[in-house]
Amino acid sequence: MKRWMQPWLLATVGLAACDDGGGATQTPQDAGPDAVVADARVPLADAGVRDTGSAPDMALPDASPPDASPPDAAPDAALIPPRPAPPAAGSLTAPRDWRYARGLIHMHSVHSHDACDGDPKPDGVPNATCLARFRAALCHNRFDYVLLTDHPGSFEDIPFEEAFLHMEGDTWVNGPEGTPIANYIQCPDNHRVLLMPGSEGDLTPVMFTRKPGPGQLRDASPEGVVALRASGALVFQAHTERFTAAELAPLDLDGIEIYNLHANLDPRGELRQLPEVLPDLIDWIRLGAAGPHPDLTYLTIFRENPRALAAFDGLSLDTELLAFAGSDIHENLPPLVRPADGDRIDSYRRLSSWFSNYVLVPEVTPEALRAALVARRLFVTFDLWGPPDRFDFHAEQPDGTVLEQGTVAAFAPGTRLKITPPVVPAGATIQVILWHITPDGPVEISRGSDAVDLEAPEPGPYRVEVRILPGHLRAELGDSADRFLREVVWIYSNPVYLR
Predict the structure, then answer these.
(1) What is the distance between the alpha carbons of residues 454 and 461, in angstroms, rounded to a whole number?
(2) What is the 3-state secondary structure (H, E, C) of 174-201?
(3) What is the pTM of this model?
(4) What is the set of domains in the chain, with CATH numbers?
(5) Distance CA 17, CA 323 (A)
(6) Theoretical Cys-Cys bridge with 73: which of 49, 159, 342, 415, CB 3.0 to 4.6 Å?
């Protein structure tokens, strides 16, 4: 390997090699001798909102400003401004009587041992600068909700109330038992971000309403899933590219990742996409300060996770579960590059602007969010290509009954599958693809750029992909546009299940 390539490989390995700091890895129940081993990091009623009170605020020293230049900034150069933040999801046009809520699932904070450059709690106190940057990123990118997934080695050692990252000015939300279940982070512009705790061990439970028992975060078995649900959690599987449908089926999960950034960069993973990504990334780096905006680096990195998609499609034949994208951000890459915008290359702000999970809710509350995730009213959007304004996928039965994404219904002749494409940025082109999931794999039912209204030909799960050639980014890419512009996925829907 050429010496000049080694730092970039180190950076990508650093992004991929995030673990929970100990503990044996476990394989899903009945996975068999050739199973892929999971990395060992790997309804509410009458909830009440209250101001700061019974649970303690985090004790933090004075923090540096959230936008302070990190170690890998370019202090001697004129910094370019950040790219515009995504629009607030609530400002977009959602279908019917819903509103969009945009959020992150699978996020790490100061309560993960490997976050914050491996120093999340210097002298036992939360890293104030890292926490400030975390909060500032959520506010800057206008998220509606964040589901944390801190590693067991740290999560198990703190009082449950500390997992909410509550600070002065935030608002607690109490559950039926009178104890905290959520925290509304207060942003400077009066926007609020709903935050709920979870953990990433052998499984990825989210939205805890009480702390799980000892050892439960490392029990990747059907019994372990049941125990985690007793703590109020929805139980997901992260890093699904490491599993097959047959390995995951016995767990009876609530959801799985169909995309995780680490799969694009992990040299150890089953996809081994790094050799494909690395030449693009090296060419991008060679452009230096004369190249495109650092946020657009994602054009060189993004690849679909076909193994995760195949696992989800296989499971969809016999069961229903949520498909989502996992952000998995730690802010812990070595400071090997000096981005021209002054922000670190792996910042919470930058990486959380790339993709997210939109849910259809009546309002942004813990109850409404949980109901949307349980009902699977969610679609994944790669926000860097643009907001999914007006996107909709649903089915309509002959009697007029609307079947939202995630709905399960008996197949009835005459049921219509309807897709409204998102508003396409000027200069971009899209392909809207309707897939029918069959035992032989996904079968393309339709493809085009217009709205879809067609009769479902037979029973089965149906899901949508919107693919985009992001020509609207050409001006920002300049001379490198022809090198890096390619068709990419913009939206993954959850299926409508016609059984």
Answers:
(1) 15
(2) ECCCCCEEEEEEECCCCCEEEEECCECC
(3) 0.87
(4) 13-389 (3.20.20.140), 391-499 (2.60.40)
(5) 23
(6) 342
